[in-house]
Each structure stands twice: as C-alpha cells, then as structure tokens.
Design goal:
- By secondary structure, this protein is mostly helical.
- It has two domains: 4-190, no CATH class; 193-241.
- It contains 15 helices and no strands.
- It is globular.
C-alpha cells in the first residue's frame, strides 16, 4: 500500500512533466554550447547537476574559455541566481516545520519552475482550508524537484556529448523555449489584473535594462522593480488598509 507521501511525490513529479517540452531543448542547447566552449559531457553534466540554474549556466558557458575567469564567472552566476533569495524568502514562510537539512535540500531543488509548481500547490491546499504550516508538502516539492533536476542534468550532458553532431541548435528555434517556459509560469501563478503590478514592473524594467546592460544586471533590475511594485504598488495599500 502506497503512503500519502509517495503519492504527493508522484504528483509533484507529474506536475513537472508539462515543462519538459520547454526545458529539455534548453538543456540540449546548453550542453551543445558548452561543448563548443571546450567542456566535456561530464563537466557540462556536473555543472547542471550542482549549479542547477539555467540562466546562470548559460552565462557561465558564455564566459568559459581555455583559462576561464573563475572569479568573474562566480560573481556573474551569483548575481543572476540572487533572484532565488526572493523566491526562497516567499517559500520559507511555509517551510518552518522542516529541519535544517530538509530545508537545505528543498531549497537546493528550488529552481524557478519548481518554486512556481510548489507555490501553486500551496495555494491549492490553502484554498482547501489548510493552515500555512500544513499547506506545504515536502514530498510534493521533492518530487517536482527531481522531475526538473535529473532531466536537466541528463539533457545538458547529452547535448554536450552530441554537441558537434547536432550543430547549432539555435537555428531550429529551440531558444524560444526559454521565454515560453517563463510565460507558462506567469500564467500558472497569475494573481489577477489587480495584483499584476509587480509582474508588469519587473517585465518592463528587465526589458529596458536588456537594451544596454548585461544579463545579470537585467535580472537584478527586474527583481528590484518587481519588489518595489510589490511593496509600494496599489495592491499593497489595499492589503494594508
């Protein structure tokens, strides 16, 4: 007889499957680009396995060379991944009952997609009457995390292994999978028009910054604008009233 935790983990894993159409091609593209920069399939796979944050990995590959500027790569990837501080703060409200090691693992698994899927599950449970402490399912989160983490690492390694044979995958339009995935996340987490000011502010700031600034600065600009709109926007006044 299956336990409720196993069923939750299975539901979490299944929740990740619709996103495979988006991030699996991206994994192949990342691996192919890494191969052209001189990375082996093992190195590319380990990068995806331990870093597990697509945007920063693309930035690291772009900076990679025969003598990679390690400090520059580390700083760039940290700046791009700094958005996870905000995501983690939002999720931590519901993970207070977990132990330190459980929290360490669940936050390691927390990429953008896993965060959105897990927060959507929290919202569903709260709508059914669960308290904040009961709304988070550790098993569901881990199941969703494995549904993204392992395929991402495997497809990145495969892309690096077959990189030379596949050629330039960008010519097939697979790069569109990146924005398409995040558009899907917005739809999944859509709060309604009255609460959409942070999304609009973040998108506008990131789009404007991308015209002049590097990718890591674009991420920071979008994050800062979204936070400002969340704190001082019209909906914030309504909640405080």
């Amino acid at each position: 007889m299956r336990s409720p935790a196993f069923d939750d983990a299975l539901r979490g894993f299944r929740a990740s499957i619709p996103f495979w159409l988006g991030f699996i091609p991206l994994g192949f593209i990342l691996g192919a680009q890494a191969s052209r920069q001189g990375m082996s399939a093992v190195t590319a796979g380990l990068m995806a396995f331990f870093n597990y944050a697509g945007g920063s990995e693309f930035a690291a590959v772009a900076l990679w060379s025969a003598a990679p500027p390690v400090l520059l790569i580390a700083l760039t990837t940290w700046l791009i991944n700094s958005r996870h501080i905000v995501l983690g703060a939002a999720l931590s409200i519901y993970t207070r009952r977990q132990s330190f090691l459980e929290n360490a693992f669940l936050f390691f698994l927390m990429c953008d997609e896993v965060w959105a899927v897990s927060m959507n599950e929290i919202r569903r449970r709260r709508a059914e009457g669960a308290s904040d402490d009961e709304a988070f399912s550790y098993a569901f989160h881990v199941g969703a995390g494995f549904g993204f983490w392992i395929p991402w690492a495997l497809t990145t390694a495969s892309g690096a292994y077959f990189g030379n044979a596949l050629g330039d995958l960008d010519r097939f339009g697979f790069a569109m999978a990146f924005p398409a995935t995040f558009i899907t996340l917005i739809v999944l987490m859509w709060p309604g028009w009255r609460r959409s000011a942070p999304i609009a502010a973040s998108a506008a700031a990131a789009a404007a910054a991308s015209l002049w600034l590097p990718s890591w600065a674009t991420v920071l600009a979008g994050t800062a604008a979204g936070l400002a709109a969340a704190v001082w926007g019209p909906h914030a006044e309504e909640e405080g009233a």
